[in-house]
């Protein structure tokens, strides 16, 4: 029955598949508490096992880019007893996604300089392996140490540095500055903006996720905690996206 229902959901999307899907993998800690685990990191471990499933569903649907928000800049203020296991789980996930034989190209987005060096080096090495292999599959952005405001600030900083090196004055830059100039320096430069942003756990806010890029995105808020997120939930998000009339701010 589920197979028929899922097929129906996909048909109801009407062939309108988002090129770029952003996912806020929320609710791991609450899932762990409600499931009776004493260590909330068990929720992150179970949630980590769902990531490859999600990427497979996106691949099957024809999505070109997926952005996974795994760790925010705010998360880095957690006590070391909570943060260290979480960073280890993230490192394990990224290593698994970079294993030979998988099609996905990994791209890190976020302020890697604020991560522990060991973690940053591990993530960079894993993403580098997917590039070195010449993979041509779906591009997967791993958002770690990510904050939307930090991204915009970093983009402006890079823009100013670039023009300073070229000898452009602030006054000259101000006369020609456009939104495209800033967009070119975002972490996701060169990629399409997300068409669809999914957040699990029932929370209905962005919390700083892809603030600039999501200006015209469609949003889908799912009640399920991330560890409980199913293919059916993903297809419902595609259906919701497919039946909407996108107005792009008009």
UniProtKB/TrEMBL annotation:
Active-site residues annotated for this sequence: 26, 75
Positions with a binding annotation for Mg(2+): 26, 218
The enzyme's E.C. designation: 2.5.1.-
Cofactor(s) needed for function: Mg(2+)
Gene Ontology BP terms: polyprenol biosynthetic process
Gene Ontology molecular function: ditrans,polycis-polyprenyl diphosphate synthase [(2E,6E)-farnesyl diphosphate specific] activity; magnesium ion binding; Z-farnesyl diphosphate synthase activity
Cofactor detail note: Binds 2 magnesium ions per subunit.
GO terms for cellular component: plasma membrane
Residues annotated for substrate binding in this entry: 27-31, 44, 72-74, 78, 199, 205-207
Key word RNA-binding present: no
Pfam families noted in UniProt: Prenyltransf
Magnesium listed as a keyword: yes
Spans through the membrane: none
The entry's keywords: Magnesium, Metal-binding, Transferase
Function: Catalyzes the condensation of isopentenyl diphosphate (IPP) with allylic pyrophosphates generating different type of terpenoids.
Subunit structure: Homodimer.
Family note: Belongs to the UPP synthase family. Z-FPP synthase subfamily.
Name of the protein in its database record: Isoprenyl transferase
Organism: Actinokineospora fastidiosa
